[in-house]
Specification:
This protein is of the alpha+beta class. 50% of the residues lie in helices and 15% in strands.
Length: 255
Amino acid sequence: MSEITVIRRPQLADQVPALASVIAPPVLGALTPLLEPGLAALTAAATVCGSAAFAAHYVGRVPASVVNGTGIGDVLAAQRSTLLGSSLLTSMAAVPGAFLGPAYADALMAGFLDPASVAGLVSAAWWTMWAGLTIKLRPALAARKVRITAPQPEAGPIAAPGPGGLYKVWADHISGEGGAHPGQHLVGVHDFGDRWEGIIEAPQGRSVNVSAEAIGSAYRVQAEWVSFAAGHHPGEQYVTVNRTPLPNAVVKRMP
């Protein structure tokens, strides 16, 4: 089986909670002691409530109707461990800071500069946990390259022996990084010899806009030999690429 390199970009619904999980602990930890006493206490109480809520969600004590009612139930399920970890780190920074003042925040945020002290060890442990949380959330924060097995054609009596080369050309020149239409992948190819057919899938939230010229350039056929048909939604489109001229088609040749 052939492999192709694709770029997976996280959805906004994944990025926002992940970004909040990374930013909240150091930002609230540093700013809470600087707030007015009443507001600082309120912030600390909010972080404790958040930790309790995420802990309940982590152990499955929050009703599914409540989780699904947020509209991002799948994201909350996927990031339940990092959301809990972030909320605990935030509480660890904000709650003592609200009552002990800026001195505690300074010791927690910069204490690792003096690793021989108790404050230094606590600070180093806190930042280590924060770094581990950030690394774990990398897939939800930024695009990344992954190697996957090229999709195989659907089983059927008309299916061709194996269009792996078609997938590779598509990945190299159209859907891959630097291609004509990054992220718009080809799947479900059937090769009939004189032509091949497949499905173009765009990333969620985007429509297919691969042009006949781009396909013709990639597969070295004339753009007029490429045709499209609407899929089940704007993010899907059927494509047919002929390897020989269509009936009554004019073949263009270089002078």
